[in-house]
Amino acid sequence: MLEFGGSPDQAMTQLRKTLELDPDFSIAHYDLGKAYLTKGDLAYATAEFQVAASLFKVSEREGALAYAYAKSGKTVEARALLANFLRESKSSYVTWYGISFFYVGLGDKDESLRLPRESLRPA
Fold it and tell me: Which of 108, 10, 21 is nearest to 31 (CA)?
């Protein structure tokens, strides 16, 4: 959690060492993306979130990717990911906080707070 504790550079150093040991460690890519976000580097954050999401598909990783897309002005890509996850939520579980990332990135904070958890569980 160094990336949120005011030490994103320290976090990045540690995460890069982790990725030297295991380049396919999705959580390390995800956390590295968060560290880049903390520093305001959307291009690198987006790249790390893309890797994290490709290695292990869970809604918070793709939500973070959509957030980075939206903040970078790539709203078409962000909305495409959101549409896919809303479709998937009809047949499988997706986390409400993952979906919230999508809406926050797109600037729709009211929608991100309105999401009922029950609506994201399959019928």
Answer: 10
